[in-house]
Design brief:
Aconitase, domain 3, 5-stranded parallel β-sheet, 429 residues
């Protein structure tokens, strides 16, 4: 642990700038978010808002509200359809401009940065536990509950406890055929599912430069599964180029730097070259083992998608693995692009055609099977090999089913073989 109290962690520097004074870990502060995100759960949030503001109440800050329908799209039942209709009516009534309906967006954590809502130095809160995803682009992003979201629809500020910080220093580069999903699962396996509870997690060091923005989004997304309050990468040249390409406007002065000399609670050195393909066994994300130790294990369904691994690079990885191969008999492979933009680009460049030709079922952008509410349900006794972020019992709708987490390359290679397989044997042969 370092002891230089004169240099701040990202979280300390972020809130010090927001409040215009020095803050310390453990201090309770109030601040106004720049973005308040919600999704299908907006229907329940509307109910809470009505209780607070009355039936004729108006949202206080419609310009910062972003609502994205993604969890159950298109609506799989009358109940879900009614909730969607309620949300559409509320959006119109309250004149909320940043609304992404069915067919207009995709998974909230992919759409938010794609549509320019994420930028360095922004304070982003969302009624979804994987909101820390957006720290990949230098924002302070964290999850909040539905009642707090309703309160922020009405009032300007909410409270935050300034978190202590854990640092992962990345060195080197990932080996060929090893991916960001393998990296973050490995780190969760090392520190445990509660290893970063209510901590700010920084990913820094020279190894960051070798990770794409898609890689970083995967890592910060899954940081929630070690309990992180927020997770963040430095805003380097790659991040600035990505933001410029997406047309995101921001003031460079808003970039909060990551210091090597801050007072970290713990510092973990990470040799990227030593990372290998891994899987997380049921029913905890930190039950991580090398894929070789699970090789040969049968499964029934593969899932490539979700807010963790539904990006274009993920789909391309899977298509490359499956080139010249077919999904094995007895295995179902589902593919869900993370957004309409990802879907369109994967359609134009032939990725979806390649996946379809290999026997995959391509579904519409959305969360789909991940939460067990829509598409791809499992039967008792079945196993899904998934690129999602959670493998809890009952997560995909069936308490008697099992979920194993892996990278898109591992899922694709395993789908072709019919049992869990090391992707290096396929793409590095």
């Amino acid at each position: 642990m370092t002891t230089n109290a004169n240099t701040k962690t990202f979280a300390e520097e972020f809130f010090s700038r927001r409040l215009g004074r020095e803050v310390r870990p453990g201090e309770i502060v109030t601040a106004a978010p720049d973005v308040v995100l919600s999704h299908d759960n907006s229907a329940a949030i509307i109910g809470n808002f009505r209780k607070m503001a009355g039936e004729d109440g108006r949202v206080g800050y419609p310009e910062r509200i972003v609502i994205i329908l993604d969890h159950t799209v298109p609506a799989p039942s009358e109940k879900h359809a009614a909730n969607h209709a309620l949300i559409r009516g509320f959006v119109k009534e309250q004149r909320i401009k940043s609304f992404y309906d069915v067919g207009c967006g995709g998974i909230c954590h992919q759409v938010l940065p794609e549509m320019g809502h994420v930028a360095p130095g922004r304070l982003i809160v969302g009624s979804d536990s994987h909101t820390p995803t957006h720290g990949a682009l230098g924002a302070f992003a964290c999850g909040i509950d539905r009642t707090e979201t309703a309160g922020l629809w009405l009032q300007e500020e909410t409270w935050f406890k300034v978190p202590r910080t854990i640092r992962f220093n990345l060195e080197g580069e990932l080996p060929r055929c090893v991916f960001a999903k393998d990296l973050i699962l490995t780190l969760i396996g090392r520190v445990g599912a509660a290893g970063a509870n209510y901590r700010s997690v920084e990913f820094a060091g020279p190894g960051v430069a070798s990770l794409s923005i898609d890689d970083r989004l995967t890592v910060t997304n899954l940081a929630a599964e070690m309990g992180a309050k927020n997770a963040v990468f430095p805003v380097d040249e790659a991040a600035r180029e990505w933001l410029d390409r997406m047309g995101v406007e921001y003031d460079p002065a808003d970039i909060v730097p990551l210091s090597d000399d801050a007072d970290f609670e713990a510092v973990h050195p990470v040799d990227l070259a030593a990372i290998e393909p891994v899987v997380a066994l049921p029913h905890q994300v930190d039950r991580v083992i090398p894929v070789g130790e699970a090789a040969g294990r049968p499964f029934d369904q593969g899932l490539i998608g979700t807010c963790t691994n539904g990006r274009l690079s993920d789909l391309r990885e899977a298509a490359a693995v499956l080139e010249g191969r077919r999904v094995a008999e007895g295995v179902r492979l589902l593919v869900l692009p993370a957004s309409e933009e990802v879907y369109a680009n994967a359609l134009l460049d032939g990725t979806l055609a390649a996946l379809h030709a290999a026997g995959a079922v391509v579904l519409n952008p959305g969360c789909g099977p991940c939460l067990g509410a829509h598409q791809g349900a499992l039967a008792p006794g079945e196993t899904c090999l998934s690129t999602a972020n959670r493998n809890f019992k009952g997560r995909m709708g069936c308490k008697e089913a099992e979920i194993i987490l892996a990278s898109p390359a591992t899922v694709a290679a395993s789908a072709a073989k019919g049992v869990i397989a090391d992707p290096r044997e396929t793409i590095c042969e």
